[in-house]
Amino acid sequence: MLNYNILSKDELNHNGLSIREISPIMKLNLRGKKREFFTTVGKNLNMILPTEANTSTTSDKLTAIWLSPDEWMIVSNELVNKDTNKYELYEILFNSISKTNLGAVIDVTDQFVQLELKGKNIYETFSAGCPFNFNEFKEKIGATTQTVLNHIDVILHHKEENVVNLFARRSFAEHLWSWIEDSASRL
After folding, report:
1. What integer pLDDT is reported at residue 1 of this predicted model?
2. Chain center to CA of 64
3. 145 pairs with which residues across the strands?
4. Is position 5 within any domain?
5. Quick check: is 114 in a domain?
6. Which of 31, 70, 81, 177 could form a disulfide with 104 if both were Cys (CB 3.0 to 4.6 A apart)?
7. SS3 string of 7-34?
8. Nearest by Cα to 176 from 65, 19, 3, 24
9. Does some domain include residue 172?
């Protein structure tokens, strides 16, 4: 198990924007394109992977985020046990997909930090350091995108109205947190 500190134990609030780290959350990367891959994933996740670009699907326990035509990030919707990095779903998927050469399953839980941003100023804050046009994104709940925010690669998921989940690599998370805090304070 990776031993790491969370960015902040408190929720940050600036000018109608709140930010907090959601941890610990299981994150898996799935890759594959065979018909058997989709069937196996669907049976094990009890959901269909999104096949339309920049979309997501959600069940009670999981969210599947489209990353490319043959790649998805699976994220747990609930906190998981922090005492171990062993996830039953990962083991099931690894055994039924990776070991059978249908695709690849990689545990990226410790690689990515998940931040939840809430408020009406989310997109104004993002626009200060991002080339992406958020006009359509902010209108469609479930929309996803991979973009650059203050020179840092991020994955954005429009969870619900005025709520966005942001995924960034752990090594950049503290810098990104500071940038968001600074940008939000300038609104």
Report:
1. 45
2. 9
3. 156
4. no
5. yes
6. 31
7. CCCCCEEECCEEEEECCCCCEEEEECCC
8. 19
9. yes
- Give the residue from 136, 157, 135, 138 showing the smallest Cα distance to 146: 157
Longest CA–CA separation in the chain, Å? 52
| Domain of residue 113, CATH code | 3.30.1360.120
Domain holding 68, by residue range, is 12-185
Instruction: Kindly give the parts of the chain with pLDDT less than 50.
Output: 1-2
Task: Quick: pLDDT tens for 74-106.
Answer: 999 988 776 666 789 999 999 999 999 999 999
Single pTM value for the model: 0.91
Tokens 């990367």 correspond to 29
